[in-house]
Amino acid sequence: MRPGIEAVVTLERVSKTYGDVVALDDVSLAFPRGRFVAVMGPSGSGKSTLLQAAAALEPPTSGEITICGVEVTRMSETRRTEWRRKHLGYVFQSYNLLPTVTVEDNVTLPLRMAGVRPDRAWLGQLIDRMGLRDRMRHLPTELSGGQQQRAAIVRALAARPDVVFADEPTGALDLRSAAHVLDLLRELVDDLGQTVVMVTHDPAAAARAHDTVVMADGRVLDVLPAPTAEDLAVRLARLSGERVA
Amino acid sequence: MIRLALALAKAGGLVVVFAAVLGGMALVTGTGVLVDSAFRAQPPLRLSGADVLVSARQSIPLKEEPDIALPERARIPGSLVASASEVPGVAAVAGDLAFPAAVGSGTAGRTADPATAGHGWSSLALSGRITAGRAPRAADEIAVRGARVGDRLRLTAAGTPGTYRVSAVVDAPGVYFTDAVATALAARTAGRAGTVDLVAVRAAPGVSPETLAARLKAGLGDGYEYATGRDRADAESPGAAAGRGLLLVLPSSIGGISLLVVGFVVGGGLALSVNRQRRDLALLRAAGATPRQVRRLVAVQAAAAALPAVPFGAALGYFLAARFGELLAGIGLVRADQPLVYGPLPAVAAALLLLAVTRVAAWAGSLRVSRMPVVSGLPEPRTPSPGRTRAGLLLMLAALGLSVTPLAVRSEAGMIGPGIASIVAVIGLALAGPRLVQGVARALAGSRLMTRLPGPLWLAVHNSHGYALRTAGAVAALGMVVTLGLSVVLTQTTMAKARSDEVALGLRGLVTITAPGLGGVPRDLLADVRSRTEAAGMAMTTVVTEPMLTGDDPGLMARPAMALGPDAEGLVDLDLADGRLSGLKGAAVAVEEGLGRVGRSMDVIMGDGARVRARVAATYRRGLGFGPIVVSRDLAAAHTTTGLDSAVLARPADFGDLARRPGLRFDSRAAGPQAAMASAQTLVNVAVLAVLLGYVLVAVANRLVATTTARREEFAGLRAIGLTRRQLRRVVRWEALLVGAAASVSGLVLSAVPLVLLSVGFLARPLPAGPLWLVPASILAVMTIVSLAMELPARKIMT
Q: Which among A201, B218, B252, B678 is least surrounded, fewest beta carbons within 10 Å?
């Protein structure tokens, strides 16, 4: 990481094992504020585990995770959830919207649970940016996939978090919708100064980020600043090839 | 195949199947034991030395239903004794008599029923042996068990008190008089001279009881029963035979209902299990499995869940049967000395039935999923059709209409409307439930109040709306528990109150004197009481009539009836519509208004089977308390086992030394003929209902556990977007509360309407009589079960 830039989330020698399987192997990494970072790697490389650990969704087997300057691995479950709710947003591959309530209620659900009054101006700006103004009173099932994911992005950003984690946000979308969502994510960072960390296995998606972290076998191999999709595709192909060999 | 089936099985649904089969086994085995006992139980036999007992017919055969057992003894000619002794192969013959005999105090001569404890000495030859002393010779000599030779005992025999000397000690129950005295005592009742109760016959060595019975039948004629083996006990005590008939009738009705409920519960469990593996089953189909194979796989899973439940359920069933037997004996519906038989047959039959039900349910449950086209993947859950909802609402409306009947018809028939109403309403609720729950939840979710609710409650309301179909089944089932529980119990207690109120009105200002331990009121008592105050004799008996009330059996039906004489005129107030009670002489009856006209005659079969053409002397309005028919005391005396009054009804007075006479009981309140039957029925109904509703509760709890366990992903998603564990627990708690409240409210409303109308009709007040604490208790039970069934598993699957 370049000095002088504040890190929002820091991982210090983080390992995670499931039984005999090592998903994360002694990973140390920092995510800087105001950047769009992609985490890329073949399936089984540990990129999703990395995201879940960094987002304090699942405690690591060993190591320390610092979110906004506070070490979270030793917090109680409730404290950690509250800390996460305040500082992190999360976007899921499967949107994770409640099918029973309207888009509007979905978007404000974390705020409601935190007992925080929504910032109407900020929310309005996000809704307009995501093009959902006329969709807020609908149920999620009445929206297209891209619209649902955009609603999930509004929800992740509603509490003005310090960082948004996105786990394969375009994995369930068609090419056009995916490109649109990626553009929107990039704009959030460039225009509004947000921080986004995105896990993807798609080189084209990773190429939209500022930096790309390349992972394999639970380790970080490289951090590439502004790579092209072609570079990343080659890199990924070689990784897969090595694994086969 | 089996390994694959078990690997795919999802525990939740199969646990429901296991529990359903367990409960079903228990219910069916339990009722099976009762039925089995009715066929095979061997009640104790007094005349155990007799191989064949000749008696009158103690039942009325019916074409399609079980025979009507006659509880009062019908006599046979004494001349049969002599005829029987001439039949070849007979070793010994005794003419047996049984009449009331009760020793004033102590256990000497004690038997189960004092009304039939007195016998002649010759009966002992076939019932026991003399252990000390010599046979009674003088008129004041007796033989008993449990006394010493030479003791002097005060005894009430056939309603006449006297002092007797013990001349012999015997090893058989009962009190034995000389044959001359016994004949005199037994013949005190009109029309019994020269008759005996039974002819007891012992076979000569080498002659089988069956052969002997056949020879006796050839010699004495077709008009009698020739009982051998187990049947001898029925011939000996016809009352017990009548009670055992109940063992047969009761469980067959219970067994039918429970099998139905078991079918539904097992089917529900399997549907749940299949639903949860829809994805896997679809994959199997895509991988080339035929629909048949998928159905077989589901059947294997169902069997795997059902088989382990069989032995435990059977054990539970035997336990339940024992408790139920105690209950029936406790309320006098069957005799305490009539043991249940615990054979393997009920369990085997129950196992076969339950496994068959499971098999059918598995087939029906997997039919849809096994037939779906391979490509379509996941079938959408069915939404309830508007027709179904409309039918449900219509049924609930119809239930309201039915519950109005008590306002118009103030008799036993009036109670039928509300009784059916609650069942119709429950079916309506089951049909319209999903839409109703959805509608109510939508109204809640859309209300302005919502935005001010705390987050977890807000989410709980929205979940209840969005997933209404998920919980509607539970709401309907729990609502059914509340409705049926409240309406069945409170309808019966309200009716009991209405009956006893009428009896109290009819017997207002009277004291009832009974002698339960003496087998009947002593003969001299009525005259004694009359010398002090106005008094009338009253007897209870059984009569068999054509149907009289709405809801009676269409054929003949036995019912308890009160017997009054002309002396009841001016004392007992039946609220006469026509005629006078003073006309209750000879073959006469009084009937409820509308069932007959004064001066006409009607056919009645008395409790001993005698057909009587009786004149209608009066009609009355208090049929609710006193039953549809009152017979004359003259009729009762001639056609009951004891021939004695059951009670003396008297105006209060100074009874002097009477009050201290042993064996007498003075009561200021009296029960009508309906009360005894009704209270026994109430208890049985409530006990059966409790078991059934308990079963439904367990089944519902099981389903709730399974549905909650299936929400793992949903909970994980909520946790990921920032709900703390505490908040998630609170969401589930609120959801449980909403489900419980919806069930309680719907159950209360559906039961309240018929109950209030019933109370207004019969008690002239809106509040039903009986245990009103059942209302909060049932709500509490529903709430507790829902909370446990949702919160505990939710806690477990939260990550």
A: B218
Q: Assess A110–B contact: CB distance below 8 Å, yes or no.
A: yes
Q: Which two tokens stand for residue B73?
A: 């003894």
Residues of B in contact with A99 (CB under 8 A): 466
Question: What per-residue confidence (pLDDT) applies to B338?
Answer: 63
Is position B174 within any domain?
yes
Say if residue A3's pLDDT is above 50. Answer: no
Give the N- to C-terminal CA distance of chain A in Å, as an integer.
Answer: 32
- Band of the pLDDT at B430, cuts 50, 70, 90? confident
Q: Going by DSSP bridges, is the β-strand pair B130-133/B160-170 parallel, antiparallel, or unpaired?
A: antiparallel
B475/B558 same-domain check: no
Q: Do B761 and B725 share a domain, yes or no?
A: yes
Contacts 24+ apart (CB under 8 A), B710-716: B710/B12, B710/B276, B711/B794, B711/B797, B712/B797, B715/B794, B715/B797, B715/B798, B715/B799, B716/B799
Q: Is A78 on the interface with B (CB under 8 A)?
A: yes
User: Is A57 among the domain residues?
Assistant: yes
Q: What is the pLDDT of residues A14-53, one digit of tens each?
A: 999 988 888 899 999 999 999 999 999 888 888 888 988 8
B172 lies in the same domain as B223: yes
All residues of chain B having their beta carbon less than 8 Å from the beta carbon of residue A57 are 720
**CB-based burial label for B535 (10 Å; 0-12, 13-18, 19+):** buried
Residue B332 in domain: yes
Structural domain contains residue A208: yes
How many Å apart are CA B447 and CA B128, to the nearest integer? 83
Q: Do B725 and A77 touch (CB under 8 A)?
A: yes
Q: How many CB pairs under 8 A join A and B?
A: 53
Chain A residue numbers with beta carbons less than 8 Å from the beta carbon of B455 are 109, 112-113, 115
φ and ψ at residue A102, rounded to 5 degrees: -70, 165
Q: Which of B177, B210, B242 is the last residue of a domain?
A: B242
| Alpha carbons A109 and A95: distance in angstroms, whole number | 14
Nearest to A100 among B467, B720, B722 (CB): B467
Instruction: Give A117-167 pLDDT, tens digit per residue.
Output: 888 998 998 899 888 899 888 988 888 888 998 899 999 888 888 999 998
- φ, ψ of residue B553 in degrees (nearest 5): -60, 140
- Spatial separation of the C-alpha atoms in residues B167 and B381, rounded to whole Å: 85
A116 touching B (Cβ < 8 Å): no
- Cα–Cα distance, A93 to B181 (Å, whole number): 101
Is B229 in the same domain as B89? yes
Domain count, chain B: 4
Same domain, B71 and B194: yes
Say how far apart CA B452 and CA B458 lie, in whole Å.
Answer: 8
Closest CA of chain A from B470, distance in Å: 13
ipTM value, please give it.
Answer: 0.81
Assess contact for B755 and B418: CB atoms under 8 A.
yes
Let me know whether B513 and B493 are in one domain. Answer: no
Decide if B247 is inside a domain. Answer: no
Q: Provide the domain count of chain A.
A: 1
- Do residues B760 and B406 make contact, with C-beta atoms less than 8 angstroms apart? yes
Decide if A209 is inside a domain: yes
Residue A1 belongs to a domain: no
- Same structural domain, B629 and B517: yes
B102 and B223 share a domain?
Answer: yes
A78 or B310: which carries more pLDDT confidence? B310
CB-based contact (8 Å) between A33 and chain B? no
The Cα B371–Cα B154 span in angstroms is: 83
- Domain closes at, from B355, B380, B405: B380
Q: What is the domain range of residue A85?
A: 7-244
Residue A172 banded pLDDT, cuts 50, 70, 90: confident
Beta bridge partners of A197: A37, A165
* Residue B337 DSSP symbol: T
- Phi, psi (degrees; rounded to nearest 5) at B336: -65, -25
